[in-house]
Automatic annotation (TrEMBL):
<protein>
    <submittedName>
        <fullName>Uncharacterized protein</fullName>
    </submittedName>
</protein>
Length: 159
């Protein structure tokens, strides 16, 4: 059985870890959260806008109207990336967590990226979350043409 890393070892690993992966790992360990505050982050790209946040290759957008109205359904989150590799990796993680909810999403009028999984995850009796990938160079001006769409919809609207 391997020995655990020492404090300097943990510090070195965290310092050289890509920021998005680092945040993912740190979020699951209170011990690492204490160390994380002492180590600088190495970012290739950081952009904070009024309605978007870009960290390296991760692009998160926000709609003010959805925040103010706190809508449970009809909300859409777009995660944009510059390559299919990131999209495939994220959908693979969705598959591990929600594989039983894979769906063809026949009722969705979108041009999906072929070969990638799609999901329809129930929230409750009235709503579901749809997760799928599209290629839309217009959405973020060619920089981030691949998008994962996470959309909450009402079951009533599907009927």
């Amino acid at each position: 059985m391997p020995l655990p890393l020492s404090y300097p070892g943990l510090k070195c690993v965290l310092k050289n870890l890509e920021t998005v992966k680092r945040a993912h790992i740190i979020g699951r360990s209170p011990c690492l959260q204490k160390i994380d505050k002492l180590i600088p982050r190495c970012l290739e790209n950081l952009h904070i806008g009024k309605w978007k946040l870009v960290i390296n290759k991760l692009w998160i957008t926000c709609n003010e109207d959805e925040i103010e109205n706190k809508k449970a359904t009809g909300t859409t989150l777009v995660i944009a990336a510059d390559g299919k590799g990131f999209i495939k990796k994220m959908l693979r993680k969705f598959g591990k967590a929600f594989g039983e909810y894979r769906s063809a999403l026949d009722d969705v009028n979108e041009r999906f990226i072929p070969g990638l999984p799609k999901f329809s995850i129930p929230i409750n009796n009235e709503s579901r979350i749809q997760v799928y990938a599209i290629e839309d160079p217009e959405l973020f001006k060619d920089d981030f043409p691949y998008n994962i769409i996470v959309k909450s919809i009402s079951e009533i609207s599907r009927i």
